[in-house]
Amino acid sequence: MSSSSDVTEAGRRAQTKARNREAILAAARRAFAEQGYEAVSVRDIIRATDLASGTFYNYFRSKEEIARALAADAAQRLRPLLRAERAKAMDLEAWLGGALRAYFHFLVEEYGGTAAGPPHVRMDATPAQRAVFEEIRESLTGILGDRLAPGADTAYLTAGAIGIARYIGEQMLRRAPPDPDGAARFAVRLILHGLPTAAREG
Amino acid sequence: MSSSSDVTEAGRRAQTKARNREAILAAARRAFAEQGYEAVSVRDIIRATDLASGTFYNYFRSKEEIARALAADAAQRLRPLLRAERAKAMDLEAWLGGALRAYFHFLVEEYGGTAAGPPHVRMDATPAQRAVFEEIRESLTGILGDRLAPGADTAYLTAGAIGIARYIGEQMLRRAPPDPDGAARFAVRLILHGLPTAAREG
Amino acid sequence: MSSSSDVTEAGRRAQTKARNREAILAAARRAFAEQGYEAVSVRDIIRATDLASGTFYNYFRSKEEIARALAADAAQRLRPLLRAERAKAMDLEAWLGGALRAYFHFLVEEYGGTAAGPPHVRMDATPAQRAVFEEIRESLTGILGDRLAPGADTAYLTAGAIGIARYIGEQMLRRAPPDPDGAARFAVRLILHGLPTAAREG
Amino acid sequence: MSSSSDVTEAGRRAQTKARNREAILAAARRAFAEQGYEAVSVRDIIRATDLASGTFYNYFRSKEEIARALAADAAQRLRPLLRAERAKAMDLEAWLGGALRAYFHFLVEEYGGTAAGPPHVRMDATPAQRAVFEEIRESLTGILGDRLAPGADTAYLTAGAIGIARYIGEQMLRRAPPDPDGAARFAVRLILHGLPTAAREG
DNA sequence: CATGAATGAGGCTTCATTCAT
DNA sequence: CATGAATGAAGCCTCATTCAT
């Protein structure tokens, strides 16, 4: 049963496994984005791949697990980007611009062409999402430094910033073609200077 | 059919009907807010009342119908409030303050005690929601008047304002006790002057 | 509570009761004929009257009972007719003609305008139907007298005759306007002389 | 995926599938014959097999579909038999004998042991049944040739013949053991020469 | 590991029947 | 007796998950 091509075979196997896993994840991401968790059936997901229904369970223990994996995956892909921007940025404007560009590009890559966008989940539904929220809060407080009043409500500040990013991101995805850089410029202005200022510029 | 208490009888019946209808609506509102449309089963809803499963269908034709009724109901309760604020308000600040206070009080009344808040639905999932979006956009453009640049992206502006309201509202609901007026003051400042200014004040 | 018009009142009540009972029976007959027993709901029946759903149960103990009542009713209306024809008839041809005319007129009165006709029930599903079957068998053997061979299969003979009547009756109901007398003439010829003979005449 | 028993494996699977499908069909046929379409629940059907409720839907999309499949199946098994008899037969008697024997044997195979027989559906409830009706009508007119009067009512003739076959078939199924050949001989005589002649012979 | 049929819990909904008024 | 809302069993069907091959 073991031949001289074992290594190659094992390699091919590993490749196939990785390919299958990615295929399932991609199909699930699309499906969840378009229809929401409950409306998606495991069969919807595997029907979008060339695999059989049972195979799903060789890669994920349950439908819930793939959803969590997906959310964690998104958050984990997003966090390094945000961290990198935080590291590079010298001031609030630079950081906001970098982070929002990163986020909007991420949205386009992840959900571009989708009718929907990322599921609008409660802000802290998963640990990964909570982590992102905290990450942003810390970056924000760090950069603001002593321009942050002692009693300032950083949770509200963070929520406001995230709200702007989320909703403008959703609008952006609905346009053809989506323009992440333009959206980021707009969001930066809105966050930094407020709505009247943002309205004054084309 | 001919007792002297006919009126009272009919009245009691009508009262019971109205009470049951409200009980079902309230249970559904809670359930949808906490778990989302798909995750809620009709049995979840009626189990939260003291009625029997079949009774649900004496009041709503389907699970979908009650969801629509709920969304329409919320939007229809919200729109007059927003309109009234628009009529009263002379400038942007007054309008924002009134509208946000109205919205946050509405949230507390509607979802106070709930773990969650209103479902984060896509911004224009239902006609009623679209209508609210447009209502806000129009108020915004109307009040800004010629302080709105010709090419300004009013959809982004509206989305940003709604995003702030939604996410700060969600944060507010999570606090005990929720403070809608405080949240409104904060949101007004954030929207009007931007994040750095909002951060500078306790 | 008792007035001088008690008799009149009682009379009106009895009238109303009879009217209601007939209304329910008529609605049920139509419904069963058009949709079949199981497909008809009690609400279908009472919706076709101006009564309330609970009222149904003041007149019939259950849906099954009204179906039985209906079948019994039909059989009981049919049997006297058949008996009368038997009494009048001097020979087979006269009896067949009378009985078939009676049956086909009965069908038109009972189911005319209906899309369907009487439910095609098993020949002996109810006692009343069994009784009709036996009634016909006895008339047949009585009239045939010694023209009936000793070992003749009277069940088959009866079944054949009934089969002809049922299926030609069904065809007749489908025509506009239905012609019960013509159908009876045709069926008599077919039963008496067989198909080739019946085919030879227009 | 690569064992030497692949063919056998696939074969066994296919066999199981076919067996299950047949088991479901058989159970449904019995149930529909005994209780009629509406009175039969999908659970009745699968309870008569050793399968689980959900399995039904691996084979048929709905209860309606299996009913249609059953009717179509019966008609499709019957029509070739009737056609073959039509091709062989030189005269009316031969054709009637062949067709009725074929039909009665079909009944015994299909519904033998059943308390009931085929559901007495309206003569043309399904396309397949309409097709059988027309098939018989055409054979009849073809064989009668110019022994058919110009204005003869071929629909009535066909209905009469089918009525005889249906009701005598029902009687036959009720006997133990059923005698399809005897029933066919009887029915031929009745159809060809009429009731008095049929009565004269044992 | 892949396959895909089998499983059975559970979802939505209908409906015969009861009962307070 | 009439009314019509309440009841809960039962129907059809979907789906996450298991398992033999």
TrEMBL record, chains A, B, C, D:
DNA-binding region: 41-60
Pfam family membership, one: TetR_N
Ranges in a coiled coil: none
Domain HTH tetR-type, chain residue ranges per copy: 18-78
Keyword Protease set for record: no
Keywords from the UniProt entry: DNA-binding, Transcription, Transcription regulation
UniProt xrefs under PROSITE patterns: HTH_TETR_1, HTH_TETR_2
Molecular function via GO: DNA-binding transcription factor activity; transcription cis-regulatory region binding
InterPro entries: DNA-bd_HTH_TetR-type_CS (IPR023772), Homeodomain-like_sf (IPR009057), HTH-type_TetR-like_transc_reg (IPR050109), HTH_TetR (IPR001647)
Descriptive protein name: TetR/AcrR family transcriptional regulator
Organism: Dankookia rubra
